[in-house]
Structures are given as C-alpha cells and as structure tokens.
Amino acid sequence: MFEQAASRDSRNALTDWILRGGIAxxxxxxxxxxxxxxxxxxxxxxxGFGQWFRYxxxxxxxxxGLLVLLPWTVTAGLALLACTMFSAALxxxxxxxxxxxxxxxxAFGMALVLFWVNRRGI
Length: 122
Description:
By secondary structure, this protein is an all-alpha fold. It is about 85% helix and about 0% strand.
C-alpha cells in the first residue's frame, strides 16, 4: 500500500512540476499580454465592461499562474484559471457573438480541469 503511493508520487513529480511550470508561464504571458496588446483593448471595448475588466483579467491570469506554482495552492490556481477560461468562452459566444473564438479558451479550460482530475487520481 505504501510502496504504491510512494512510487506514484516519485513517478509523477517531475511531470507535475513541468506541467505546472508550463501553465504558470503560459498564463503569466496571457495576463501580461492584456496590459500591452492593442487588440485586447479593442476586444474588451466590445465586451462593454470597460478597460478595468481587461486589467482585472490580466491580474487574475497572472495570479492564477503563480498559484499553480505553489504546491499548497495548485487547486485554487487551477480552479481560478479554469473559471476564467470558461467565462472567456461564454463571453466570446454570448456577448461578442463569435463562437469560433470560444474554442481556444474552452479547450484551455478543459485541459486545466483534466490536469486537476489527473493530479487528484479521480
């Protein structure tokens, strides 16, 4: 019983860190892009909540990426990022009326959920 638990942890530890690092880097980049890319200014203008929402989204993505790096906050970070991605997909579909653009955030959201499920061993 204990041997199985120990082998599972040691076998997946490196892979887990690599995936978490990739998620952190990706979402830090996505979040930072919200502050610098003029295309995001236009997109958030179309959403209609104001530019504060663009800054908020950027901060949430960067924060989620940082939370994924810390072992005791991985679940919170994954949940925050998955909710952000699913919300982005819904906004692309229902607010902006561009359903095809919802595929990417929807896929990221599903990948984050699947990663969480795999980590939990469910």
